[in-house]
Amino acid sequence: xxxxLEDTLLAAIRTIPDYPRPGILFRDITTLLGDARxxxxxxxxxxxxxxxxxxxxxxxxxxxxxxxxxxxxxxLSAGFVPIRKKGKLPYETVRVAxxxxxxxxxMEMHKxxxxxxxxxxxxxxxxxxxxxxxxxxxxxxxxxADIVAACFVIDLPDLGGRQKLEALGVPVRTLIGFx
Length: 179
Ligand code: PRP
Ligand code: ADE
What we know:
It is built from six helices and nine strands. The chain has a single domain, classed as Rossmann fold (3-Layer(aba) Sandwich), CATH 3.40.50.2020. Helices cover 31% and strands 34% of the residues. By secondary structure, the protein is an alpha/beta fold. The chain binds 1-O-pyrophosphono-5-O-phosphono-alpha-D-ribofuranose and adenine (ADE). The site of adenine has 8 residues, from strand 2.
Protein backbone atom coordinates (compact mmCIF):
# COMPACT_ATOMS: atom_id res chain seq x y z
CA UNK A 1 0.00 0.00 0.00
CA UNK A 2 1.24 3.52 -0.83
CA UNK A 3 2.21 5.38 2.38
CA UNK A 4 0.67 8.78 3.03
CA LEU A 5 2.67 11.81 1.97
CA GLU A 6 3.08 12.76 5.62
CA ASP A 7 4.44 9.31 6.57
CA THR A 8 6.83 9.34 3.60
CA LEU A 9 8.18 12.79 4.47
CA LEU A 10 8.35 12.10 8.22
CA ALA A 11 10.37 8.95 7.57
CA ALA A 12 12.70 10.75 5.17
CA ILE A 13 13.50 13.92 7.16
CA ARG A 14 16.19 13.59 9.86
CA THR A 15 16.16 15.71 13.02
CA ILE A 16 19.46 16.82 14.56
CA PRO A 17 19.20 18.30 18.09
CA ASP A 18 21.29 21.36 19.01
CA TYR A 19 22.43 22.19 15.46
CA PRO A 20 23.69 24.76 14.55
CA ARG A 21 23.07 26.21 18.05
CA PRO A 22 21.98 24.69 21.38
CA GLY A 23 18.20 24.44 21.55
CA ILE A 24 17.59 24.24 17.77
CA LEU A 25 16.02 21.05 16.41
CA PHE A 26 17.47 21.06 12.91
CA ARG A 27 15.24 19.46 10.26
CA ASP A 28 17.71 17.91 7.84
CA ILE A 29 16.40 17.28 4.30
CA THR A 30 19.60 15.69 2.97
CA THR A 31 18.10 12.31 3.89
CA LEU A 32 14.95 13.16 1.91
CA LEU A 33 17.04 14.25 -1.09
CA GLY A 34 18.94 10.96 -0.95
CA ASP A 35 15.71 8.93 -1.01
CA ALA A 36 14.63 8.80 -4.68
CA ARG A 37 10.98 8.01 -3.92
CA UNK A 38 10.58 10.63 -1.19
CA UNK A 39 12.36 13.28 -3.26
CA UNK A 40 10.14 12.68 -6.30
CA UNK A 41 7.02 12.64 -4.15
CA UNK A 42 7.93 15.93 -2.48
CA UNK A 43 8.61 17.63 -5.82
CA UNK A 44 5.40 16.26 -7.37
CA UNK A 45 3.39 17.56 -4.41
CA UNK A 46 5.05 20.97 -4.51
CA UNK A 47 4.35 21.51 -8.21
CA UNK A 48 0.91 20.06 -8.84
CA UNK A 49 -1.20 23.16 -7.95
CA UNK A 50 0.87 25.27 -10.35
CA UNK A 51 0.85 23.03 -13.44
CA UNK A 52 -0.80 24.90 -16.31
CA UNK A 53 -0.42 28.35 -14.70
CA UNK A 54 2.39 29.32 -17.11
CA UNK A 55 4.83 30.16 -14.34
CA UNK A 56 7.80 32.12 -15.75
CA UNK A 57 10.39 31.65 -12.99
CA UNK A 58 11.10 29.73 -9.84
CA UNK A 59 13.06 31.75 -7.29
CA UNK A 60 15.09 29.43 -5.07
CA UNK A 61 16.64 30.52 -1.78
CA UNK A 62 20.25 29.52 -1.02
CA UNK A 63 21.15 26.83 -0.33
CA UNK A 64 18.52 24.14 0.05
CA UNK A 65 16.01 26.09 -2.03
CA UNK A 66 18.35 25.72 -5.01
CA UNK A 67 18.04 21.93 -5.00
CA UNK A 68 14.26 21.85 -4.64
CA UNK A 69 13.68 24.92 -6.79
CA UNK A 70 15.74 23.52 -9.67
CA UNK A 71 13.64 20.35 -9.71
CA UNK A 72 10.38 22.36 -9.46
CA UNK A 73 11.50 24.66 -12.31
CA UNK A 74 12.28 21.67 -14.52
CA UNK A 75 8.90 20.10 -13.85
CA LEU A 76 7.00 23.35 -14.56
CA SER A 77 9.17 24.21 -17.61
CA ALA A 78 10.02 27.48 -15.87
CA GLY A 79 13.30 29.35 -15.54
CA PHE A 80 15.24 29.40 -12.27
CA VAL A 81 16.57 32.48 -10.45
CA PRO A 82 18.86 32.19 -7.41
CA ILE A 83 18.39 34.30 -4.28
CA ARG A 84 21.78 34.21 -2.54
CA LYS A 85 23.60 35.19 0.62
CA LYS A 86 25.45 38.50 0.01
CA GLY A 87 28.58 38.69 -2.07
CA LYS A 88 28.08 35.58 -4.21
CA LEU A 89 26.48 37.00 -7.35
CA PRO A 90 28.65 38.45 -10.15
CA TYR A 91 26.32 41.03 -11.76
CA GLU A 92 24.39 44.05 -10.36
CA THR A 93 22.08 43.09 -7.52
CA VAL A 94 19.28 44.24 -5.25
CA ARG A 95 20.01 43.50 -1.57
CA VAL A 96 18.06 43.23 1.70
CA ALA A 97 18.93 42.47 5.37
CA UNK A 98 16.95 39.83 7.28
CA UNK A 99 16.89 37.84 10.53
CA UNK A 100 16.37 34.09 10.92
CA UNK A 101 15.83 31.58 13.72
CA UNK A 102 19.52 31.60 14.59
CA UNK A 103 21.10 34.84 13.35
CA UNK A 104 21.23 37.83 10.99
CA UNK A 105 22.24 37.96 7.32
CA UNK A 106 21.78 39.77 4.00
CA MET A 107 20.58 38.30 0.74
CA GLU A 108 20.55 39.47 -2.82
CA MET A 109 19.51 38.65 -6.35
CA HIS A 110 20.46 39.90 -9.78
CA LYS A 111 18.43 42.97 -10.65
CA UNK A 112 17.53 41.43 -14.01
CA UNK A 113 16.81 37.97 -12.54
CA UNK A 114 13.09 38.50 -13.10
CA UNK A 115 11.46 40.87 -15.60
CA UNK A 116 8.62 43.14 -14.38
CA UNK A 117 5.29 41.28 -14.42
CA UNK A 118 6.79 37.79 -14.65
CA UNK A 119 4.93 35.12 -12.66
CA UNK A 120 7.20 33.71 -9.97
CA UNK A 121 6.96 30.96 -7.35
CA UNK A 122 9.32 31.17 -4.40
CA UNK A 123 10.74 27.81 -3.24
CA UNK A 124 12.67 26.82 -0.12
CA UNK A 125 12.98 23.69 2.01
CA UNK A 126 11.60 25.16 5.22
CA UNK A 127 9.78 28.17 6.65
CA UNK A 128 10.48 29.00 10.30
CA UNK A 129 10.18 32.66 11.35
CA UNK A 130 9.57 33.59 7.71
CA UNK A 131 12.35 36.20 7.84
CA UNK A 132 14.23 34.65 4.93
CA UNK A 133 11.17 34.24 2.75
CA UNK A 134 9.93 37.75 3.63
CA UNK A 135 13.29 39.16 2.49
CA UNK A 136 13.03 37.16 -0.74
CA UNK A 137 9.52 38.56 -1.33
CA UNK A 138 10.87 42.10 -0.85
CA UNK A 139 13.66 41.50 -3.37
CA UNK A 140 11.33 39.98 -5.93
CA UNK A 141 8.80 42.79 -5.58
CA UNK A 142 11.54 45.44 -5.82
CA UNK A 143 12.21 44.22 -9.35
CA UNK A 144 8.53 43.90 -10.27
CA ALA A 145 7.85 40.16 -9.94
CA ASP A 146 4.28 38.89 -9.67
CA ILE A 147 4.63 36.37 -6.80
CA VAL A 148 2.02 33.67 -7.35
CA ALA A 149 2.91 31.61 -4.26
CA ALA A 150 5.67 30.52 -1.91
CA CYS A 151 6.13 26.82 -1.24
CA PHE A 152 8.14 24.84 1.26
CA VAL A 153 8.47 21.19 2.20
CA ILE A 154 8.54 21.94 5.95
CA ASP A 155 6.61 24.40 8.12
CA LEU A 156 7.58 25.18 11.72
CA PRO A 157 4.15 26.65 12.57
CA ASP A 158 5.07 27.76 16.09
CA LEU A 159 7.44 30.33 14.58
CA GLY A 160 4.75 32.13 12.55
CA GLY A 161 6.38 32.32 9.14
CA ARG A 162 3.25 31.40 7.21
CA GLN A 163 1.29 34.29 8.75
CA LYS A 164 4.15 36.70 7.99
CA LEU A 165 4.05 35.82 4.27
CA GLU A 166 0.26 35.71 4.06
CA ALA A 167 0.16 39.22 5.59
CA LEU A 168 2.22 40.30 2.57
CA GLY A 169 -0.42 38.81 0.27
CA VAL A 170 1.63 35.75 -0.68
CA PRO A 171 -0.24 32.39 -0.67
CA VAL A 172 1.81 29.76 1.20
CA ARG A 173 1.95 26.02 0.51
CA THR A 174 3.75 23.61 2.86
CA LEU A 175 3.82 19.79 2.86
CA ILE A 176 4.52 18.92 6.49
CA GLY A 177 4.63 20.71 9.85
CA PHE A 178 6.85 20.09 12.88
CA UNK A 179 5.58 21.56 16.17
C1 PRP B 1 17.26 27.88 6.46
C2 PRP B 1 16.17 27.37 5.55
C3 PRP B 1 15.45 28.64 5.17
C4 PRP B 1 15.57 29.50 6.42
C5 PRP B 1 14.26 29.50 7.17
O1 PRP B 1 18.30 28.36 5.72
O2 PRP B 1 16.69 26.67 4.44
O3 PRP B 1 16.08 29.29 4.07
O4 PRP B 1 16.60 28.90 7.22
O5 PRP B 1 14.32 30.27 8.33
P1 PRP B 1 13.38 31.53 8.61
O6 PRP B 1 12.01 31.18 8.13
O7 PRP B 1 13.44 31.70 10.11
O8 PRP B 1 13.96 32.71 7.91
P2 PRP B 1 19.67 28.86 6.35
O9 PRP B 1 19.60 30.32 6.61
O10 PRP B 1 20.03 27.97 7.50
O11 PRP B 1 20.69 28.69 5.15
P3 PRP B 1 21.27 27.43 4.33
O12 PRP B 1 20.11 26.85 3.53
O13 PRP B 1 22.28 28.08 3.44
O14 PRP B 1 21.84 26.45 5.30
N1 ADE C 1 16.08 27.02 9.29
C1 ADE C 1 15.58 27.71 10.33
N2 ADE C 1 15.23 26.90 11.33
C2 ADE C 1 15.55 25.63 10.92
C3 ADE C 1 15.42 24.35 11.50
N3 ADE C 1 14.91 24.20 12.72
N4 ADE C 1 15.83 23.28 10.79
C4 ADE C 1 16.35 23.44 9.54
N5 ADE C 1 16.51 24.63 8.95
C5 ADE C 1 16.10 25.71 9.63
